[in-house]
Specification:
It is a single chain. The chain has a single domain (2-55, 70-212), classed as Rossmann fold, CATH 3.40.50. The protein contains six helices and 16 strands. The chain has helices at residues 15-25, 31-49, 87-94, 144-155, 170-179, 207-212, and strands spanning 2-6, 9-12, 55-61, 66-72, 76-83, 101-102, 104-109, 116-122, 131-136, 139-140, 160-164, 167-168, 184-187, 189-190, 193-194, 200-201. The strands form four sheets. Strands 1, 2, 5, 6, 7, 8, 9, 11 and 13 form a nine-stranded mixed β-sheet that branches. The protein is globular, with a radius of gyration of 18 Å. The structure holds uracil (URA).
Length: 215
């Protein structure tokens, strides 16, 4: 169950997704549960994010007879979490797309320019123009880090890019789509707004701190 809210944005409204998100939002959910829920929620979002993967017909033998089946057609996927909170979503994707290659994108914010700066980028081979990238960034807040991460995988040659996030703010969607109108966004919710400190409200707080028990 999903809703296309605006071009390129899919909000997954399936009851399981919304149920798990409700516990992620709850400030009393402890780290151990938060981590598990973030992965489970990402798995469900991945189901939606991969729904247009092309399939091809193959012929196999069941124990009873030969039959035609559908298999994903030579799909090469790179999953790229944005450090550090995106790491909390990685296992969720890999449990469904186990053959995916994995890339890592580390960004920090320059306090003078407020722009994201890459401090670590290690991506798999994307330059063959055949690999589709799934970027993982749990909170699409200002959209600056997601946009920089998308730019990194595009520069490396990704054929298409889907951003999977847990919660998005309207400001982040606008910024990301302004810079990368071709990127598809899959999320469990679009929240009201960003507050003056750049947090999504109502949101779920700092995703990294909640995943790793830091403050
Ligand atoms: N990053 C987070 O972890 N949470 C927010 O609300 C915004 C950015």
């Amino acid at each position: 169950m999903s809703t296309e809210t605006a071009t390129g944005v899919t909000v997954v409204t399936h009851p399981l997704v919304q149920h798990k998100l409700s516990y992620l939002r709850d400030k009393d959910t402890p780290t151990v549960h938060f981590r598990k829920l973030a992965n489970e929620l990402t798995l469900l979002l991945t189901y939606e994010a991969t729904k247009d993967f092309p399939t091809e017909t193959a012929e196999i033998e069941t124990p009873l007879e030969r039959t035609e089946v559908q298999r994903i057609a030579g799909k090469k996927v790179a999953v790229c979490p944005v450090l550090r909170a995106g790491l909390g979503m990685l296992d969720g994707v890999l449990s469904l797309v186990s053959s995916a290659r994995v890339g890592f994108i580390g960004l920090y914010r320059d306090e003078e320019t407020l722009q994201p700066v890459e401090y670590y980028v290690k991506l798999p081979e994307l330059g063959d123009g055949e690999r589709d990238a799934i970027v993982l960034d749990p909170m699409l807040a200002t959209g600056r880090s997601s946009a920089a991460a998308v730019a990194a995988v595009k520069n490396a040659g990704a054929r298409s890019v889907t951003l999977v996030c847990l919660v998005a703010a309207p400001e982040g969607i606008e910024h990301l789509q302004g810079e990368h109108p071709d990127v598809r966004i899959v999320t469990a919710a679009v929240d009201r707004e960003l507050n003056e400190r750049g947090y999504i409200v109502p949101g779920l707080g700092d995703a990294g701190d909640r995943l790793y028990g830091t403050k």
